[in-house]
Design brief:
The protein is an alpha+beta fold. The protein is built from 19 helices and 20 strands. Helix 3 (65-79) packs antiparallel against helix 5 (145-156), helix 3 runs parallel beside helix 6 and helix 13 (292-303) packs across helix 16 (352-359).
């Protein structure tokens, strides 16, 4: 492909409100032919079959992509409560099939007006322990998913809002069978499962906790969905549910500071997508407070290497991936935060010269010490950040018959959120995504420090890919906390650079390199790759990868090539159903 052709495509995308950064010479890619339905076919890709089916049923009734997405989210809140829900937040990247316009909808939670930078410090000025913080009332931010979905529906919905919750309402009333994945999480000792709400919800009459194969009902959630369908988002942001949320978050231990006014004041934010080329595609992601800029920077660094000439069986390929990841995370951790409160050098992080300077730091062997953040143009010195971001998240993708596409990553933060429930759904503990230490020893503020009304930094990066003509070429996103950026980048390298089918790309072993921690799925790597990594100074440790939840689709020669993460219970449903 000629560079001029990509520039023309980029210009077209700019007029479609996609904020695009500097261009680099693309490399040729020959994608495999997929034997799937035509590009015009609608599809739903989600982490749970019941949720995907709820979305497909809406498409069958003539619903739009956002109509179906609302049905998917309502069901996920019920059947996959460890990952996302109506008490959490989300980022959504939307492609208008008629105009080609890309829009990001930011439904990230916000800190209450009475929040303070020291709210996660104990009496002695030291950060609270993780188990203590995640179940505290202080951990919950003002939920954003419902408000955001309502805004997108107002602008792009086809069916009445009131008609989109029936499947989840019916399933909550009649009950559903606990899936193996949910059952596995119920077998762990998460502190959230010890809360009174979770213990009551998942408890059996004999005192034992429910498990895989047990049936569970949630009449409180069914009642809330009826009110949400009838009254719209006000069912959550005002009235009895809002009062319950405030009471629940202000309850001991470590009660929070949320008020009715905080809930009433919540506003989702519309943002321009941030786009940057990778090979023959434009990859478009949410801007800060999402960490999409980190994904784009990582891909740009990898483009400076010869990773595309290698394969999944090549240790050097994984070495390059690991070292580029460490450099990206150093920059992301240092600079990314809520742009309304922190100066984020987005353009500087993606400038070709800066990216090349960072990629040049990749040597023949891994550096003994973790890399430090660079100094991109526009950078403001900030404290080093050590935010711990757990992995309770879900990603799903919907396209309707008109070509509208929703790529959404949604979360309640860590597993089962805060463990506190209101009206049958879990409340998020999203404020633990802020840096517990607001300043460093020198008094410099962290870009991701707590502040009233601030949105915590997120690793969620629901992406949409466009081809050289500005047409829809794919979508991708993942669960996994801080590891999301690595999971998504690995999958794109597999699908684009190594010509794997999307399902094969998602099944590749996960490798996450951030700071001094380099972990991965040891049992999925060829022993020769592990030996090659060790020879290059990377002693891969177990413990990363199980919580990935990548869902993705590429358009290959006019055909749909969709994939779901085999580590979860996902499904790809193509067509509007029978």
């Amino acid at each position: 492909m000629k560079i001029s052709r990509l520039i023309v495509a980029a210009a077209a995308l700019l007029t479609a409100s996609c904020a695009q950064t500097g261009l680099s010479e693309p490399a040729a890619v020959s994608a495999p032919t997929a034997s799937a339905p035509s590009q015009e076919e609608p599809f739903v890709i989600a982490a749970n079959p019941l949720a995907a089916q709820a979305g497909q049923d809406v498409l069958k009734r003539g619903g739009s992509a956002i109509d179906a997405a609302i049905a998917v989210q309502a069901m996920l809140s019920l059947v996959e409560p460890q990952s996302s829900g109506l008490g959490g937040g989300a980022f959504l990247t939307y492609l208008d099939g008629t105009t080609g316009k890309l829009t990001v909808y930011d439904g990230r939670e916000t800190a209450p007006a009475q929040a303070s930078p020291s709210m996660f410090l104990g009496p002695e000025g030291k950060p609270l322990g993780y188990r203590q913080a995640v179940t505290s009332g202080r951990a919950t931010g003002v939920p954003g998913a419902v408000g955001m979905l309502a805004l997108v529906h107002e602008e792009h919905g086809a069916l009445d809002w009131s008609s989109l919750f029936s499947a989840a309402e019916r399933t909550a009333e009649e009950g559903f069978v606990i899936s193996p994945r949910l059952g596995r999480f119920l077998g762990f000792s998460f502190p959230q499962l010890d809360t009174p709400d979770a213990a009551a919800y998942f408890g059996n009459p004999d005192g034992k906790r429910k498990t895989t194969g047990d049936r569970i009902t949630n009449p409180e959630y069914a009642d809330f969905l009826r009110r949400l369908a009838r009254n719209g988002p006000e069912a959550l942001y005002s009235g009895s549910t809002a009062a319950k949320i405030v009471d629940k978050t202000r309850s001991a231990p470590l009660g929070g500071r949320m008020t009715i006014a905080d809930l009433a004041a919540y506003q989702p934010v519309k943002r321009e997508a941030l786009c940057n080329p990778y090979r023959v595609y434009l990859v478009c992601v949410p801007p800060p407070p999402s960490s999409g800029v980190g994904l784009l920077q990582l891909l740009s660094m990898l483009e400076q290497t010869d990773i595309a000439t290698r394969s999944p069986d090549d240790a050097q390929a994984w070495f390059l991936f690991a070292e580029a990841s460490r450099l990206m995370y150093a920059d992301r951790d240092q600079y990314v935060g809520d742009p309304a409160f922190a100066s984020v050098p987005v353009k500087g992080l993606l400038e070709p010269a800066y990216v090349a300077s960072r990629a040049a730091l990749i040597g023949e062997t891994a550096a003994a010490a973790p890399p430090e953040a660079g100094t991109p143009r526009g950078a403001v010195q900030a404290a080093a950040d050590h935010t711990l971001e757990p992995a309770g998240t879900s990603h799903f993708i919907v396209r309707d018959a008109q070509g509208n596409v929703v790529s959404i990553t949604t979360t309640v933060e860590s597993i089962f959120g805060s463990g506190r429930m209101v009206d049958g759904f879990f409340l998020n503990n999203q404020l633990t995504d802020f840096s517990f230490n607001p300043v460093d020893a020198e008094g410099r503020p962290a870009a991701n420090a707590v502040a009233p009304g601030k949105r915590p930094r997120s690793s969620m990066t629901p992406a949409i890919l466009l081809d050289s003509d500005g047409k829809f070429a794919g979508a991708i996103g993942s669960a996994g906390g801080n590891s999301i950026l690595a999971y998504v980048a690995k999958s794109l390298v597999g699908a684009i650079d190594w010509n794997l089918s999307m399902q094969q790309a998602l099944a590749l072993p996960n490798l996450v390199a951030r700071g001094a921690a380099i972990g991965g799925e040891l049992d999925k790597f060829d022993p020769a790759v592990l030996q090659g990594l060790a020879a290059r100074g990377i002693d891969l440790k177990p413990g990363q990868g199980e919580d990935s939840g990548v869902h993705a689709v590429m358009i290959r020669n006019g055909k749909v090539d969709g994939g779901f993460d085999p580590r979860r219970e996902g499904v790809v449903l193509v067509g509007a159903g029978e």
